[in-house]
Amino acid sequence: MAEAIDITANPYKADFPLIAQNPGLSFLDSAATAQRPATVLDAQRRFYETMNANPLRGLYKLSVDATQAIEEARGKVAAFLGATDRDEVVFTRNASEALNIIAKTLGPQALGEGDEVCISIMEHHSNLIPWQQVCRATGADLVYLRPNEEGRITPEEVAAKIGPRTKIVSVTHVSNVLGVENPVRMIADAAHAQGATVIADGAQSLPHVHVDVRELGVDAFAFSAHKLGGPMGIGGLWGKRELLESLPPFLTGGEMIDSVTETDAVWAPIPEKFEAGTQDAAGIYATGAAIDYVVEHGRDELEARERELAAHLCEQLQALDFVTIVGPSDPKAHIGAVSFNVDGIHPHDVSSLLDTKDVAIRAGHHCAQPLLTWMGIESCCRASVAFYNVRHDIDQLVDGLKFVWGVFHG
To answer: Which CA distances in Å does 35 have to 30, 254, 386?
Structure first.
């Protein structure tokens, strides 16, 4: 099937204004944020032009239309995640906020002295620092799953780290540095056998792989819209109804209230309990448009194209004798992103010089400093693809890296 995917052609380019208007640009930083199709940009503008009103707070038509727009988007997100109950979807600003909601509400009621929270060493800081803080406050211990040389978390590692003291497990579905897909279902099964709650950080997985939260076996799942082609400033938290109903609110005020007296308050039901204040209604509406775009073009087809692009990217980088891959050696093991270093040249210099050749990549610690420290490196380069990329983008990167090498070595 892979041979049938033509990565030399770009049937999607015209749908993305920034890419279409910059034909010489090789944008290889979609793991940080994806480009937006025109349908998403149009949807955001359409909301303000046709239904701009505060949702949930008015009985007039504009407010009713705005409320309906949000709920329709919530339903699209739920279906996209494989959830059967749209009220289990809470809109947040981003995946970081979603993970903080879970950590700061679940942690204090689930953890005590000597309990354990298990995460992986490859976590983004957004799924690491909240658990550090909760463990510090509750006296719980933070335990790390560590991958093997190929970036894989093995069954033996899971068995060694998840045990009777484990109360919470929170792991990234796809690493933003290594590009590997973690065995979330295996981890979830092991955690549930110990009575633990399981959270997955889906910021890097939802844009690139088919996600079904029921098949993953997790209790909660965090994501960001902007990595899926939606607006910045919108994310979400899916959680099982029983879990969300058991948690206290994270923020108070606005529409998360059912009733208030001088001395007490009753919270609104989920999802409103976690959506205090005025939401970014236009952004939520546009997130629905981003999901529509992916669904209309076929999730399986887009995923297959991205896997082929990522594999080709890895293979081309491996062919350069002055480049070292950070992560799996198997090109097909990379989901969206391939991290690497150029021998003896700082990643910041690599990125800056590539920019002069209209190649955009990421350089730094990628908000995963404990992982890089554990691997013995301070920083690295990262090239990441999306379905709107083509083989030429990767060729342009390779030519750019040869230019970088030449600048330093004559």
So the answer is: 7, 32, 9
Q: Among the three residues 277, 295, 313, which one is the final residue of a domain in this structure? A: 295
Q: State whether 351 and 328 are in the same domain.
A: yes
**Number of domains comprising the chain:** 2
Cβ–Cβ < 8 Å for 31, 336:
yes
The answer to whether 111 and 131 are in contact (CB under 8 A) is no
What's residue 355's pLDDT? 98
**Overall average pLDDT of the 237-266 stretch:** 95
Average pLDDT over residues 258-269: 94
pLDDT at 12 over 50: yes
Confidence at residue 1, expressed as pLDDT on a 0 to 100 scale: 39
pLDDT of 4 reads 64
Report the CATH number that the domain containing residue 152 is assigned in CATH.
3.40.640.10
Q: Judge whether 367 counts as a catalytic residue.
A: yes
**Domain end position, chosen among 270, 295, 320:** 295
Residue 147, classified by CB atoms within 10 Å of its CB into exposed (0-12), middle (13-18) or buried (19+), is: buried
Of residues 118, 135, 314, 367, which has the active-site annotation?
Answer: 367
The domain of 345 spans 2-30+299-409
- Average pLDDT in the chain: 96
Same domain assignment for residues 78 and 214: yes
